[in-house]
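Mods, move this if it's the wrong board.
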Amino acid sequence: MAQISSVSSKVGNVVPSEVDVTPTEIPLRTYNVTKADARPVLSGHHKINFDERKVLVPWEEGKTSSFHNIWLRDHCQCEQCRHPITKQRLVDTFSIPANIQALEVDAQEKGLKILWKNDKHESFYPYEWLHLHSYNPRLQKYLSPQFKFWGSEIHEKPPEVTYDEVMESDKGVAKWTSKIYTYGFCFVDGVPVSPEATQQLIQRIAFIRPTHYGGFWEFTADLSKNDTAYTELQLRAHTDTTYFSDPAGLQLFHLLEHKGDGGRSLLVDGFRAARILRDEHPDSYRILSNVRIPAHASGNEDVSIQPYAPFPVFNHHPVDGELVQIRWNNDDRATMDHWSDPHEVDKFYEAIRHWNEILRRRDSEYWEQLVPGRALIFDNWRVLHGRSAFTGSRRLCGAYVNHDDFISRLLITNTKRGDVLNAI
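Not the wrong board. Structure tokens:
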């Protein structure tokens, strides 16, 4: 099972961050890392100190955390200041004096008790919580995602679960979401061949995200929606919904029937392909991390969907620099007439040629013939998909799920809820 704690840098094991991130040199950090030695244990040689502005907490690891008084008061954990059920802030932040001071600071066995001078309010902060949220200095370090990259060899043993185990318990959902997160996709075997059963399956993760295609959809090659997905044509490797400001997170397909030939499904690990591009053509990687590509969905008469701003192919976390999202669908690319530097035009076309060549390498492509009863779900932010041309009648059903809802379900089913909430 993947180390799900890596989804959040504050949940679970922690390790040192390796690199600094600059806008023009964004790293692709997806490597394995080790556990840090830091523990939330007070120093036995130094005392907790406080003054009119801050509280200093010394740790066994040899570092001292400095917390501003106003920050501590604003983050009081008591039920008067933080709702015990909703976990929402109740304290009126704006009623806290800017120069608030502690009257008493008491180092107790499990945490720090503070009596505030202005209103005699009493706050208690567990040492584990203080260590976890220390900001000066940061003690809980970044944990790089424990993804497993794959190429065509994944056909030998693709990730899979059974319909029954997913439907029977959250333990089955935990296994399912863990595999989706680790590999970027997963098959589900033994699915009853019906839209109703398939819809129940996807809803084990989260509610279905509706789009202009509908909510849970069932489609054939009839152009009922004016999109090439609704044809018999070949589709090159791409991600869906690049024309949304927030692209769909997960996508599920279930082939209900096919009377004809062709129609094999294609999957490509986009994060693996991006790493190869970075290693072989670093300038092209930088171009595709910075040049913004407009996109649209305008095939139907009643819509012309466009994101609030163009986005690059490679989108990175603004804090840790991790590659978190790939947006690539050359068919949905709109007119590119806004360039920060006209010299980037030639570089862009060179970059997407390099990118396309890597995506189409034989060892990048995983081809699989879908069959009734075996559903496929994949992370649309990581895995590109496509299909070969086909003949005959082919009927599929499926749906989208928001990425945030997927990560929520992943965390809650694979991590203790208390640990998740403690990291908030």
